[in-house]
Amino acid sequence: xxxxxxxxxxxxxxxxxxxxxxxxxxxxxxxxxxxxxxxxxxxxxxxxxxxxxxxxxxxxxxxxxxxxxxxxxxxxxxxxxxxxxxxxxxxxxxxxxxxxxxxxxxxxxxx
Length: 111
Prior knowledge:
With 111 residues, the chain is mostly beta strands. The protein is 0% helix and 51% strand. The strands form two sheets. Strands 2, 4, 5, 6, 9, 10 and 11 form a seven-stranded mixed β-sheet that branches. A four-stranded antiparallel β-sheet has the order 1-3-8-7, with no helix packed on it.
């Protein structure tokens, strides 16, 4: 059974950092393109980044300087490192893989 479980969200001050994790089960993260998305209140879900099975990455232009996608094949986990966070980064963050989305993790950037 395919399952994706995000974690690592929370409240962070502007300028801070967070690392989100997405633990996968039922498939291997190295076999699929894995992605991160986010959805802010009242807005559509937005693409952040993806990592292909061979390891190449792709980013939304507006986020590539601050966000980094990676994976740990041994742990079968996807990560999103987020630096220099801004209030407009506040959203629910979702990972996607094997055609499924996880349940999301809330990130709130506020002083």
